Amino acid sequence: MKIKAPESLSLDEILPKKTTLLMGAGPVPIPKEVALANSMVISHLGETMKMIVSRIQLMGKYVFQTESKKIFGIAGPSSAAMEMAVTSLLWPTRKVLVLNLGTFSARFTELAKGVGAEVTELFTENFQPFTVQQVKAAFEKENFDVITLVQGETSCGVKNSELEGIVKLAKSFGVRTIVDAVCTLSTTPCPMDEWGIDVMVVGGQKGLSAIPGIAMIAFSEETFEFVSKREARMPHWCLDPRRAYRFWGLGEYHYTAPVPGLLALHEALRLICQETLEKRFERHLNCSVTLQKCLEAMGLELFTPKEFRLQSVVAIKNPGKVVTKDLIGYMIKNHQVEISGAFGLDIIRIGQMGEQCRFDNIKRALEAVGAGYEHFGVKLDVNAGMREFERAREIQSAFSLMNPASRVSTV
After folding, report:
1. Which residues does residue 273 pair with via DSSP β-bridges, in sequence order?
2. How far from the centroid of its chain's Cα atoms is residue 158's Cα?
C-alpha cells in the first residue's frame, strides 16, 4: 500500500491570526533586521561567508569581552554549546564540580556523566547563590579539573552574584571554568577576560535577540590550546572544537553551517555593538527594575530577594493557587502575551532580555498578568502597578527608554 500525501496545511492556517508577544524566559521577540537576515540563504563556503564569519567573531569578541579568537557558532541550542564545552574538557578520570542551582545548572551534571567524568554536585539552601567560601571549602576537600556554573539560573530567577570571585578562586586552584551565560550575555556584565573565564556559552534566543537553534561558545586561547592537545578521543564530531576551528578559523568545510541562523546572529550582534554594552546593560537594568516595582505595587511577591535577583528573568510567586498553565493560556488567548511557568516551582517568570526590554512590552505584560489573575479570582491593585509604570516611564523618557517595540518583527 502506498502512503498518500497528507492534506496541505500551510503555516498561515496554523499560526494564530494575532501575533503573541513573547515575554517568557525565551525565546524572545527579534528585531526586524534579524528576521530579514533569517530569511536568506547563501553558500556556507566562499568569500562572502568568510566575511560573515569574521564579522561574527569580531563582534563576538566585543560581546564576550575577550581578546580570544576562538569564538565559534554552533548549529544547535544553548545546550549544544554546553555540550561542546563539557566534552572538550571532561572525559573518564577527569573530575568536575557542578554548582547546582536548578534545572539548567543541573544539566551540566547530565552532560558530564555522559562522557564518563567523575561528578560532584554542590547545592545551596533555599535557592541562595553560591559563595566563594562554599566553593573554597569544596576545593580544599577534593581536587577538581573543572567547575561549571551559571551566571543566572533562569528556572528560579537567581543570579550567582559571586561569580567573579568564584572564577578567580578556581584559577588560583588550577581549575578550569565553564560559565553558562545563556540568559545574561549582553544583558548583565560578565567580562570573560577580566574575570578569567575559560569557556563561556550562550544561546541565540535570549539576551542576544537572535533566533532559537543557534548558539555561541568562546574558549580562552590557553584553554583552546589545552583542548587541541588532548589525547582522549572526542565523543562528538559536530561538537569537536578542533574540527569547528577548521570552519571558524580557517574557512574550510566542517559541516553545512546553518546559514540563515548565522546571518541572523550577525545582525543581532551588530545591533548590540551599535547600541553598546554600556547602554544595553543600563536599559536591561532599568526596564527590569521597573517591571519588578510595578509587579510589587500590584500586590505580587517576587520569588528571589533583591540582593541576588536575576534581572533578565524575573520570578514571581504564584498567588491564590492559580494553575499556571491556565493563567498562561488565558493571557495568550485574551491578551496575546505569553509568559513562562517553571520546572516544579509554583512561580511564573517574565523575561527581560533583548527586545523584551521595551516599555510598551512591559506595559502589555503587566496588563495581561493583572487581568489574568483577576480572571481567576486573585485580587490585585492593577491600577497601582500601572501608576508605578507611568512614573517610571516619565523618569526614563529622558534616557530614550520608552522606545516602542517597532523594531520587533511580527513574522
Report:
1. none
2. 13
Domain ranges of the chain: 21-27+277-407, 32-274
Separation between Cα atoms, residue 376 and residue 406, nearest integer Å: 32
267 pLDDT band, cuts 50/70/90, is very high
Domain 32-274 matching CATH 3.40.640.10: the answer reads yes
In angstroms, the CA 19 to CA 16 distance is 7
Burial class (CB in 10 A: 0-12, 13-18, 19+), 377: exposed
Q: List residues bridging with 122 in a β-sheet.
A: 99
Q: Are 291 and 367 within 8 A, CB to CB?
A: no
Query: Tell me: the pLDDT tens digits for 119-175?
Result: 999 999 889 999 999 999 999 999 999 999 999 999 999 999 999 999 999 999 999
What is residue 407's predicted lDDT score, i.e. its pLDDT? Answer: 43
Nearest Cα residue to 330 out of 317, 343, 319, 339: 339
| Per-residue pLDDT band at 406 (split at 50, 70, 90) | very low
Query: Across 224-345, where does the E strand assignment appear?
Result: 313-317, 337-338
Residue whose C-alpha cell reads 503573541 in the numeric block: 20
Question: Class for domain 21-27+277-407, per CATH?
Answer: alpha beta
- Residue showing cell 500500500: 1
Q: Distances in Å between the alpha carbon of 173 and those of 108, 145, 162?
A: 21, 9, 17
Asked whether the beta carbons of 279 and 123 are under 8 A apart, the reply is no
Q: What is the pLDDT of residue 411?
A: 33
